[in-house]
Write a structure and sequence with these properties.
With 149 residues, this protein is mainly beta. 11% of the residues lie in helices and 56% in strands. The protein is built from 2 helices and 9 strands, in the order αβββββββαββ. Strands 1, 4, 5, 6, 7, 8 and 9 form a 7-stranded mixed sheet that branches. It has a two-stranded antiparallel ribbon with strand order 2-3. The model is unreliable at 1-9 (pLDDT under 50).
């Protein structure tokens, strides 16, 4: 059973904008783990679900970290898509989970699936994501200081 997904929110190129691809094959130490890349305002990555990923996000001050996915070639919604944002040093974490159907509904309505979390620590933050959805994805991260929201 295939799902037909039509994104109304814009194209893949609109989602990526001027960012450059990071293939996330590096090993950045963070929280006793290794992230494949550092994502920020100048970069994006891509991959396939089902699966998981780990990226490092650098935060200069208390901020909101927003993780956004542009989904393509979706063939199954899966049960759950989750994003976990860790404070620096992994002293705390926030896990945001959506059902597979809710993630696709958001994608269909807005052209993108997003989750966000506020962090107070300055420095390197581990962001993990995993999903049993069957799809290709493009992922980007935006950091907005809490003081200007």
């Amino acid at each position: 059973m295939g799902l037909m997904l039509v994104a109304c929110g814009g194209s893949r190129d609109d989602f990526i904008g001027p960012r450059v691809l990071d293939v996330c094959k590096a090993s950045w130490p963070v929280c006793s783990e290794y992230a494949g890349c550092i994502l920020g305002p100048e970069s994006y990555s891509e991959g396939r679900f089902p699966g998981r990923g780990q990226v490092l996000v650098r935060v200069p001050e208390a901020s909101t970290i927003k993780v956004s996915f542009y989904l393509e070639e979706v063939t199954a919604a899966g049960e759950e898509t989750a994003i976990t944002v860790h404070e620096e040093g992994c002293r705390a974490r926030q896990r945001k989970a959506s059902t597979g159907r809710a993630a696709l509904d958001q994608m269909e309505k807005f052209g993108v699936f997003t989750q966000q979390a506020d962090v107070t620590g300055v420095g390197d933050h581990l962001v993990e994501f995993d999903s049993d959805m069957q799809a290709r994805y493009v992922v980007k991260v935006d950091v907005t200081p809490l003081r200007i929201q």
